[in-house]
Amino acid sequence: MSRYPGIFVIQGLDGDNKETIVDALDDPRPLISIPEITGDAAFNKEIADVKRIRNEENKVRKDNWRRSKEIYDLNIKGQELVPCSSCYDKFLEKETVACPAGHRACINCVVGSIKAALKSARTNSTCIGDEKAQCEEHYSDLILQHILDVVDYQRFSSYQQEQALLAVKDKLLRCPFCGYSESIPEDNEDFKLDELLTFACKNPSCLIISCLKCNQPYHIPVLCPPMKAAKGIESLKQAVQTAVESVLIRHCPTCQFPTFKTEGCNHIKCQNGCHWCYSCERIFTRESIYGHFGKPPTNCQMYEDSPVEDKRRMRQRAQQAVLDWKAKNPDMAHLTIDIEQYMPKK
Question: What is the 3-state secondary structure (H, E, C) of 195-261?
């Protein structure tokens, strides 16, 4: 006697040495009858859960029985199962799919390969049934519809469309809720993707207006975290830019007349007659010029390498501007920028 899940194959049951199949599910043990409604909500839920689990287990047993019977019938006919070159197990032909070149692999392996790619927002329907791993064929769309569930197939189709549109170098806008996509040709000079805040989906079953910054439903005028961060970065950049420019262009301490020095000494005489230091921007009289330079508390130099010193001052003021900005905006203190981009290249 040989046994498969759900069935027994018995030889000589009728005395003539013939094989007889006995279905273990034909005469299951009767269950004890219990009332459908007991008046106890918790107990009723428990009964429902038991019935659901029992039905699921019965379905699994019946499926296993049918599969075992089909395998047994194949063995009787001298036919073999189909090997999967990916997991090296053997399957019924209906449990496998083939690429256009005829290479077969089990459905579980093919689905697993496709889902692994979908996790990275990629599409991969390349054949995995070739033992030499040289086949470049792809599983047909009909096969994909058959083996993938509705959600995964929609994701696959969406990503496939996105890749096709990117291949022709179009800007792509995609609804984060249903995958609907629109492309904007790059030669459209009026379109600026960075300035676009929302996307209106035209899929009749969706029609959701989403935020392109956070991929959530429309929420303006309330700012989402990415919008706040972008606004904060712009504000921080402006603060650093202003601090750097204050080193390049300085102003007379009395009349605020702008002054820019490329060479010469640090003694500046304004058109209004004011004498002041280009290094520390302090005022002094004509008689005390030499008493200011090289003396405490500033120790300013009369002559200096302006490009080198100005770059040092720019970096110092930029760093201080970042600290001051974060002190005023503690909720965005995590934002950072590269202040070196504001430094002179030479």
Answer: HCCEEECCCCCCCCEEECCCCCECCCCCCCHHHHHHHHHHHHHHHHHHHHHHHHCEECCCCCCEECC
